[in-house]
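Ticket #4471: structure export looks truncated?
Reporter: QA, pipeline team
Priority: medium

Steps to reproduce: submit the single chain below to the structure queue and open the exported record.
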Amino acid sequence: MAAWWTVARWFTTQPHPVLLLMLANRDGSLARDVDVQAWLGPYCLTEAAGEHDRARNAEAEAASLRTQRTRHPVRHPQTGTPNTARMETV
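Actual output as written to the record:
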């Protein structure tokens, strides 16, 4: 346990150059990834809430259209004339 604390003290007093490069905020670094994820989280939550609202509106519209369809059945126009069933022979 003492060895771990010794190494931890070394890194706090004089960090390794690779660690500094990994934590620098530049493209491909861990710090940049953390910044992007910190921004991306709330953005994704906002977009998901908007998509949820759009889906709920679409479901309500579909239900409304189904209700309208069952209330008023579609009447198809009659084809032909009433006299077509009776044919006169010449």
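Status: closed, not a bug. The export was complete when the record was re-opened. Leaving a note from the reviewer for reference: The mean pLDDT is 81.
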